[in-house]
Every structure is written in C-alpha cells, then in structure tokens.
Amino acid sequence: MTAPDAAGLRRLTRELLAAHPPATTDRTDFLKARFDAGLAWVHYPAGLGGLDAPRSLQPVVDEELAAADAPDNDPRRIGIGLGMAAPTVLGYGTDEQKQRFLRPLWVGEEVWCQLFSEPGAGSDLAALGTRAVRDGEDWVVDGQKVWTSSAHVARWAILIARTDPDVPKHRGISYFICDMTDPGVEVRPLRQITGEAEFNEVFLTGVRIPDSRRLGPVGEGWKVAQTTLMNERVSIGGARIPREGGMIGPVARTWRERPGLRTHDLHQRLLTLWVEAEVARLTGARLRQQLVAGQPGPEGSGMKLAFARLNQEISGLEVELLGEEGLLYGDWTMRRPELVDFTGRDAGYRYLRSKGNSIEGGTSEVLLNIVAERVLGLPVEPRNDKDVAWKDLSR
Fold first, then answer.
1. Which is it for the CA torsion 219, 93, 296, 113, positive or negative?
2. What confidence tier does 171 reach under pLDDT thresholds 50, 70, 90?
3. Using 50, 70 and 90 to split pLDDT, how confident is the model at 212?
4. Rounded to two decimals, what is the model's pTM?
5. Hey, is 268 helix, strand or coil?
6. Residues 349-367: pLDDT tens digits?
7. pLDDT of res. 22
8. What are phi and psi of 245, to 5 degrees?
9. Cβ neighbours of 23 (radius 10 Å)
C-alpha cells in the first residue's frame, strides 16, 4: 500500500468526518474511528493508528479536523503516554504489545506515567536501585520512584529497574511496562510549591510483572530508555504552539490591555523575551521537521533547555509587570490534578510552576552536558564509575 500524499490524507479525513459526524458521534467512538482510519499519527505504521505517511503531513489531518470542530484526545492529560510511552512501545515492543497498548493510549482510555527517577538516582538515572528479580515467567520488583507525574490517575507505567547488579550501572538495567493497579504498587502525593500534588512518589513492594511486559532485551533497558528520554525532551521543549502561545501569551495580552503598567525597562525586557520565544517556537518547528528523517536526537535537549529558561524569565517578568497584584495567589488548595498545566491559572501559579521546568524531564545541568558532548562535540567529562559493577559503587 502506497502512503497517501496531502490530498489523499485530506480525502480520508473528510471520509472519516462524513461517516462519524463529530456533532452526533460519541467522543470516544470518534477517536477510535480516527485511530482505526490511520489518522491518529499518520507517520505510524498502518494498523497502529497511522498510514506510513511522512510525519510532516500530520497538520493536514489536524487542520481538517479542527475546522470540523472534531474532538481531540486531550493531549495535556495523556502527554506522557503520547510523548514517551508510545514511541518506546513502537520502537521496542512486540507486535502483541503494540496492538494491546497503542490504541487505548492514543484514545485516552488509559493514562500512562513514568517510573524512572528515584530518591538517589535523579540526575544520575543510571545509578537507580529499584530491583527486578526473575521468578519463573515473572519479574518481582522492589524499590521506590519519585517525581512521578500523574501516577495517581495512571493505568500503566514505563519502568526501568536493575536486573543485574554485577555489571556496570548502564548495562544492568531492563525496561518494563508496569500495571499501576497491581498489588504492591502504592502511590503517595508530593505537594509542590504551587499547592498541588501533581507529582507523586511510588513504592513498589513485591510487584510481579510478567516477562511478556518487558520492552527490549534483558539488560539493555538503558538503550531503550534513551528513546523515551529523547522523545520526552522533544515533547516538552518542542511542542507545536502558535505565535504567542505558551508562557509569552499572557504577558503580551496584559501589556496590550493595561498600558498603565508599562515602563521603558519592562518594555525592553518584554521585547527581548518575545523575540526569544518566537525563535524557540520556530526552532521547535524545524526540529519537528528533522524528526521526519528518524528518531529525535540530542537537539531536543537544547529545546528543553530553552523552554525552561524562557518560562522562568517570562513568568518572572509577568509577576513584576503586575506589581502588587502579581504577588497574589488564587488558590493554595491541596488537589491532585489530572493533567500537567504549565501556563494555566494566574501569574503567581505560572511563576511557581515554572521553577520545576529546569528539573523535570532532565535537569538543565544534565542537558547542558548532553548539548556540550553530543551536539557541540566537546570532550566528555572524565568518569571513574563507568567500568565498575553497580554493586561496588559507593552510595
């Protein structure tokens, strides 16, 4: 079957809309029909929500659906599944795993979370200590994970655990899909500076994971995890947004609507940040075009770095622009939101929430190393632990 061109995708989308009118079709039924028609992510294989078409043609489908007021799959709610789990399952999953997980993931019937970071293994993720021990056809997992977004609403988790402590830390890790409803999985909220508990800590005690839910070979989980991490940084830093989308939008609106707040200094700073935000937006568009040629590379780390810095500087400018009003905070209520929202609510929320942008998805310090070594080609920092068995490392 030949992959459709733009005209073919436009025709298929209109056929979908005619057969399943958004105004009269149940939202979930429409999304399932879209997936089955190959219009979910057109660059995925036929039968898995795609049509083997170029990734660059996805906007053709999206524009037709938006014009028809068709429902989307609420990507902010299922961002971890879409941006991290799906490309990893596609890259390393068996045919059975792809068929089982990708459709309900994309439709939003099943939320995913990421069980990577640990209290003693955040920036140095390969030092993780959560153990997975083989027991017949299962793996028994014990350990603790932390900073887990959406764990309280997730059905599935992507999990890395140590399966061989006798080899260097990068080589003794395996990658699993964990059922968050299984016995032994305990999720506890972590209240953030915003007042919310968007993050969680997760305790795993004797959790049994069938070997059929392993992704990639035993002991090669670090390689599999790189697919997840590279896609994560692109999904955070390179998201498709319109001009004045994201954090710069509220500041620009306030500037236009409330001239009494303006000063010359704030004007100069806003102009600088507006230009930088637009440069980052266009760079993100170019990065997404490069993805057509293959998997995301280290350039996504640079985009995520820019995303964190700009969000923090722009939100700080917004609070300063609003003066005393910027010190107000709308709601400190402890709640556990169902989605990650970087720009919602008020200026105070945006300012506080942006502080996490330089930590989540890879700290800025780690990403600077990645850019230095893998993009700029600078010498790798000396390491004395690369050839030492994990069990012999000082902790």
1. negative
2. very high
3. very high
4. 0.90
5. helix
6. 999 999 999 988 778 888 8
7. 97
8. -80, 170
9. 7
Q: How far apart are the first and last CA of the chain?
A: 55
What is the per-residue pLDDT across 363-387, written as a single tens digit (0 to 9) for each?
Answer: 888 889 888 888 889 998 887 777 8
Q: What are phi and psi of 50, to 5 degrees?
A: -130, -175
Q: Return the bridge partners of 121, or none.
A: 118
What count of Cα atoms within 13 Å lies in the side-chain half-sphere of residue 93?
20
- C-alpha 220/C-alpha 209 separation (Å) is 17
Contacts of 18 (CB under 8 A, 6+ apart): none
Q: H helices within 54-162, ranges in order?
A: 58-67, 79-80, 86-92, 95-107
Torsions phi, psi for 201 (to 5 deg): -110, 145
Coil, strand or helix at 379: coil
Q: Is the dihedral of CA 301, 304, 309, 312 positive or negative?
A: negative
Radius of gyration from C-alpha coordinates of the chain: 22
Q: CA-CA distance, 66 to 39, in Å (whole number)?
A: 13
| CA quadruple 346, 347, 349, 350: dihedral sign | positive
Residue corresponding to tokens 């996805």: 58
Distance of CA 126 to the CA centre of its chain: 19
- Active-site entry in 64, 118, 201, 232: 232
Query: Strands (DSSP E) along the chain, which ranges?
Result: 112-115, 131-135, 138-145, 156-162, 173-179, 185-190, 199-210, 214-215
Query: What digits encode the pLDDT tens for the residues 217-275?
Result: 999 999 999 989 877 766 665 567 789 989 999 999 999 999 999 999 999 999 999 99
* Share of residues in the chain with pLDDT > 90 (%): 71
Residue with tokens 């919602």, as numbered in its chain: 344
pLDDT for residue 295: 60
- CA distance linking residue 48 with residue 171, whole number of Å: 31
> Is 232 tagged catalytic?
yes
Q: What are phi and psi of 156, to 5 degrees?
A: -130, 160
Contact 381, 360 (CB under 8 A): no
Q: Is 117 exposed, middle or buried (0-12, 13-18, 19+ CB in 10 A)?
A: buried
Task: Give residue-wise pLDDT tens across range 182-204.
Answer: 999 999 999 999 999 999 999 99
Q: What is the pLDDT of residue 291?
A: 62
- Our CA angle for 254, 338, 227, nearest 5°, is 95
